[in-house]
Amino acid sequence: MSEYKKTENPFAKLFISGGVTIFFEALGGGHYFEMVKILKQTTNNSYATITKRMIANKGIVGILDGFVPWGALQASIKGSSFGFGEAAAKRLLERIAPDSVPKWQREILSGGMGGFVQGIVMSPMLLLKTRVMTDPRFRTAGGFIQTSIHSMKLGGELIRTEGGLMSLTKEPKKKKKKGHGRVFVKRFADWTTRYGFVVLVEHGMRKQLGLSEKQKLSKTQEMVSSLAGGTLSALATVPIDVTVSLIQQASKKGQKVSVFEIYREQFRSGGLRGTLQLATRGLVARVTHVALTVLMMKNVSSWCYSFLVDFTVKK
């Protein structure tokens, strides 16, 4: 069987990746780490303070603030769109350039294109989820059901007050976009660097183990490579991640926000040290979330795909 025919089916990968992502975000800590990261980036409170405020009024269920409905919807869209985009790009690259583009380059490019598709599709949900997480009213919205209802109301409020349904993809006339174009570029850069660093780590691991590029790594070795590559990528791209969170936070709604102005004001008030601190806010939470996300998207979703294919064939 040719390598092209072995390539994962984009539509099957869409559903599998979506399911894996929802499980990870809800039960694997993904939503918690992302929420802590965003709150750290937009408030600079300590991790202990952020977590304490999450659970102060609602108990442990408070860590799922914002997950229903926007977080769950975002998780589904995030995983499925990336899985589809990555598989479709990989299949296209293997079809049109099987020999001229090395396999490791196709791997990195397919990851980047998966991220680009993800950014286009999930940008509206990311805005809604960020607004929910950074809205001070949300901390006292009640239990899980009340929180979910408040989350839906907040989304409706955003649509009503900022230009109708199209406010989910752009700002009202004469106002700058809330980071949507940056989200596309950011997601492409995120996933290109993630896959690039994973490939780099895998290459180094093969070299240390005396394996050729055609020999497969064990599942444990693949896990280590993905976690290490995700960590390196998070360290490289954290400034732009902080910028997007600052632009989309609830306190900025309806305002014109300039990336240059954000960092210029910080430099004036805190100097170089303060600027660096701003650009690296939420680093620990981001590194943890990104490393686990790379593991989910690059390895776990593919393992699930292979398991289901093998199960179907055996039946």
From TrEMBL:
Sequence intervals crossing the membrane: 12-33
Keyword rRNA-binding on entry: no
Gene Ontology biological process terms from the UniProt entry: alpha-ketoglutarate transport; mitochondrial citrate transmembrane transport
Keywords: Membrane, Transmembrane, Transmembrane helix, Transport
Solcar repeat placement: 217-303
Pfam families registered for this protein in UniProt: Mito_carr
GO cellular component, as recorded: membrane; mitochondrion
Record's bilayer topology term: Multi-pass membrane protein
Subcellular localization, as worded in the UniProt entry: Membrane
Main subcellular location of this protein, as a coarse class: membrane
GO molecular function: tricarboxylate secondary active transmembrane transporter activity
Top-rank taxon, per record: Eukaryota
Family: Belongs to the mitochondrial carrier (TC 2.A.29) family.
UniProt name for this protein: Mitochondrial carrier protein
Organism field: Reticulomyxa filosa
